[in-house]
Write a structure and sequence with these properties.
Structural class: alpha/beta
Number of strands: 15
Strand order of the largest sheet: 4-10-9-8-7-5-6
Order of helices and strands: HEEEHHHEHEHEHEHEHEEHHHEEHEEEH
Strand content: 15-25%
Largest sheet: 7 strands, mixed
Helix content: 25-40%
Radius of gyration: 21 Å
Number of helices: 14
Shape: globular
């Protein structure tokens, strides 16, 4: 059997139609921002897979680091008082890079686990502080926070929840902030929601600095500072979901730094290792640790603090810093956004937007962006369709001519909408 036939016979793909699999594109290798399929055809990776591959594909130095760590200590559990050197050094490195006060790290295997961890952590913190009724979580209607039980309940994208039965209660979804939103109205809604439920019932507000899966939607000017002020005034904790935005995607190590936010918890994954090893990290502020002081956190995953993942993450962060990829995200993202702007004048296109190397084109009404992405793929450019939106998030190392190829292909296909 061919690889495609074996895939159809045995693999259930995320978001694919069960029993009706589309012929797969079988990736064989990658280098930088380029990918090659099993037939040898070249593609420009305009999505980083799922936002993860900050330093690009095929970094041999990361493979060497992983092999060296495996030969020394491949894995041992980090439960209780067990630890390993790479994860200790990674936690210290993250404390250096993150905004002040985020000096504590809980490791995970990915983003959904990170959000599950953060939600349990803040609820436990209020329990430990003698306020067990503070268990409500505020989120947004276009938010994506993961596929676990609580992280899916926090997610605001309705189709992602369909058919999965009752989800945990305790989540309230607010309006989606967009570039054209009235910040006064958004803040008024937040204050009204807090008043209706009572601040003494609300544990935390969870939000992406820039909405990712929801369509690469930057916040309107002034939104985050005002939201943070309302939360602080009411004693509500702020969880930032930076699974997509952390480690350079917005041109900063963390989106919190771009929007000058003093978060209580920051959830990260993806670009922490550039996807070379599955790993995530939840950064926890001193304020939350003080609430938890003396409390046992009965929570964990088998591969918490995996030494190979931590070793790769340290090397990956070094590459991001050494190659000035934060600056490249701003420069390349600005170039791509400027070249994409004429799409806003095309028939069927509602908006073009971007922050750093997070770019989105939204189609009008309920137009499906799927055909645009499919035709781009046929032309050797990988972009992602999310409902009526085309989203782009290439590796931070993408070369100018490769970025231009992504933009030119998208513009051509958008021009065919009519």
């Amino acid at each position: 059997m061919s690889l495609a036939e074996l895939d159809a016979a045995h693999v259930i793909h995320p978001h694919a139609v069960v029993g009706s699999p589309a012929p797969p594109v079988v990736w064989a290798r990658g280098k930088g921002a380029l990918l090659w399929d099993a037939d040898g055809r070249e593609y420009v990776d305009g999505t980083c897979g799922l936002w993860q591959c900050a330093v690009g594909h095929g970094r041999e130095e990361l493979a060497r680091v992983a092999a060296e760590q495996m030969s020394q200590l491949e894995f041992y559990a980090s439960f209780w008082n067990f630890a390993n050197e790479p994860s200790i050094r990674l936690a210290a490195r993250l404390a250096e890079l993150s905004p002040p006060g985020l000096d504590h790290v809980f490791f995970t295997n990915g983003g959904s686990e990170g959000i599950e961890t953060a939600l349990k952590l803040v609820r436990l913190a209020w329990e430990a502080a003698g306020q067990p009724d503070r268990d409500l979580i505020l989120s947004r209607k276009a938010a994506y926070h993961g596929v676990g039980s609580a992280s899916l309940a926090a997610t605001g994208i309705a189709p992602l929840k369909e058919g999965f039965g009752p989800l945990p209660p305790g989540f309230v979804h607010l309006a989606t902030p967009t570039l054209s939103s009235d910040v006064d109205e958004l803040v008024a809604e937040l204050e009204q929601t807090i008043a209706e439920h009572g601040p003494e019932r609300i544990a935390a507000f969870v939000g992406e600095p820039v909405l990712g899966v929801g369509g690469m939607i930057p916040p309107p000017d002034g939104y985050w500072p005002r939201v943070q002020e309302v939360l602080r005034r009411n004693g509500i904790l702020l969880i930032l979901d930076e699974v997509v935005t952390a480690y350079g995607r917005t041109g900063h190590w963390f989106g919190a730094q771009r929007y000058e936010l003093d978060a209580d918890v920051i959830v990260t994954a993806k670009a922490l290792t550039s996807g070379y090893v599955p790993m995530g990290a939840v950064l926890v502020h001193d304020r939350v640790v003080e609430l938890l002081d003396g409390t046992q956190f009965r929570h964990g995953f088998t591969y918490n603090g995996h030494p190979v993942g931590a070793a790769v993450a340290l090397a990956n962060l070094d590459i991001i810093e050494r190659e000035r990829l934060l600056e490249r995200a701003v420069e390349t993202g600005g170039r791509m956004l400027e070249r994409l702007r004429p799409a806003a004048d095309l028939a069927g296109v509602a908006e073009v937007r971007g922050v750093g190397l997070m770019l989105g084109v939204e189609l009008e009404g309920d137009r499906d962006a799927g055909p645009v992405a499919a035709r781009a793929l046929e032309r050797g450019v990988v972009v992602r369709a999310s409902g009526q939106k085309i989203v782009m998030s290439p590796p931070l190392v993408i070369e100018a001519e490769q970025a231009d190829r992504v933009v030119d292909t998208v513009l051509d296909e958008l021009g065919r909408l009519g």
